[in-house]
Amino acid sequence: MLLSDLTWPAVQALAPDTPIVFPVAALEQHGRHMPVFTDSLLLGEITRRAHEQLADRVLFVPLMWLGNSDHHMDFAGTLSARPRVYLDLLNGLIDDFVRHGFRRIVIVNGHGGNDIPGKQAVFEARQRYRTTPDQLLLFATYWNLVPEPHKAHPDLQQTRMGHACEWETSMVLRLRPELVVDLAQTENVPFGNPFEPASRGWVMPDRSVPGHVGDPRGATPEKGEALFAAFSYGLVSLLERVLAWDGKSWEG
Fold first, then answer.
1. Other C-beta atoms lying within 10 Å of the C-beta of residue 216
2. Domain-located, residue 251
3. Which domain holds residue 58?
């Protein structure tokens, strides 16, 4: 089910245990070779495929394209909700769905900068609704829903998600190849070790002059399709666990 297609009485008639999927992504620079709408394009395709399999059991909300992208603001075209504004936005959206009576809310993320405020939002919301044990609030970043996504295609070289990298570039090549430009002119920007396991505050110019991280030169549409299939499977698997949850247990 698509929220955008329903009337308010139709939404009101849904069972309170209907999972609500709220996709959140970004509009930000993706190097010199990729469109600024990359994150939203990719998550939109992943949720579209998940909806095809779960259309009669799960309610999908329109994708939120504005994300927390302050660390990319040195690059033209990036739009960002400041971190605390974004945190308040997510909390408000959770409150809206709870007010409408829904008990299973899943925020699905497609942008790394949303990860920390997204986890904080569901943590804070659970404290607000601590007296309702059957309230399930989840935040999930799609590339973390598959144990080893780099095994989706035998020729994938990258072992983790970067930025405008082999993975993302491959998926855009599969979805909108006309939007990828000057791929042969890109270079490898290593991930490096930014004082790990500590978490370092950073802005993109600290890491990359062109704005990407990883090596997009090996990207192909075939790798992109394999990644789409893997990530869509991961999302569907998570939602099936949400559907099967008994409303009280810690595990799901």
1. 30
2. no
3. 3-244
* Residue 18 Cα distances to 34, 69, 121, 127, angstroms: 36, 31, 21, 22
The pLDDT tens digits for 99-136 are: 999 999 999 999 999 999 999 999 999 999 999 999 99
User: How far is 137 from 129, CA to CA, in rounded Å?
Assistant: 10
**Residue 184's CATH number:** 3.40.50.10310
Where are the alpha helices (H) located in the chain, listed in sequence order? 8-12, 38-54, 83-99, 115-128, 166-175, 204-207, 221-244
Instruction: Look up the pTM and report it.
Output: 0.95
Indicate whether 151 belongs to any domain.
Answer: yes
Instruction: Determine the Cα–Cα distance for residues 55 and 168; give it in Å rounded to an integer.
Output: 26
pLDDT digits 0-9 by tens, 80-103: 999 999 999 999 999 999 999 999
- What's the burial of 21, exposed, middle or buried (CB within 10 Å: 0-12/13-18/19+)? buried
Q: Note whether residue 250 is domain-resident.
A: no
Residues paired with residue 141 on neighbouring β-strands, in sequence order: 109
Please list, in sequence order, all residues whose beta carbon lies within 8 angstroms of the beta carbon of residue 82, skipping any fewer than 6 positions away.
68, 70
Q: Which residues pair with 12 in a beta bridge?
A: none
Expressed in angstroms, the distance from the first to the final Cα of the chain is 23
